[in-house]
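hey m, so remember when u said the tokens were messed up on ur end? i reran from scratch. heres the input so u can diff it against urs
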Amino acid sequence: MKKRIKIAPSLLSADYARLGEEIKEIEAFGADMLHIDVMDGHFVSNITIGAPVIKSIRKVSPIPFDVHLMVSDPCAFIDDFLDAGADIITVHFECSDNPAFLYEAIKKIKARGKRVGVSLKPHTPTEAVFQFLDIIDMVLVMTVEPGFGGQGFMSDMLPKIAKIREKNQNIDIQVDGGINNKTAPLAKLSGANILVAGSYIFGAKDRRAAINSLRE
């Protein structure tokens, strides 16, 4: 059965002076979830927001919060973000050289009854995530180098998406980086069913049309 396409606008590209309004608007225009990038200045060189901001915006909307932890020690932050209102937490395969560390993070999220994803940087082999496919809900394939918005889509990541879909027909495959109305069809044809888009949605004059163009 073909999986429904879901759209996850990236908060990284929103107007931070009016976050509440921005979130309500993309929810009203048909977004399925809100993608929230958390960066610690160590795992990636940029720094974004923490759990207190998520706790504040949680009061604004019931839309699912899809929290992408680009941090070196996800286990130290998981409870904070779940307490703040995260519905899905994605951790990076590359956060540790020890797979047991990642298994512990997955276990911790699952124990709280929430959904969990594992993300792969562009240069990480596809096969790295295979060991987790039976215990996670989602794989996030980065089609840009993590850390900054507005980068161009890396088309050589499409075979990675296809390999994961071939390996598991039921898992959600999310794609983040350079998604627009030209690249979204390529990602979907390769097997992705959740599309993260930042500037393409929040920078659009007609955000409803932008969201619909990605889904259709």
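this time it looks ok to me. The two ends are 17 Å apart (CA to CA). if urs says something different then somethings off w ur setup not the seq
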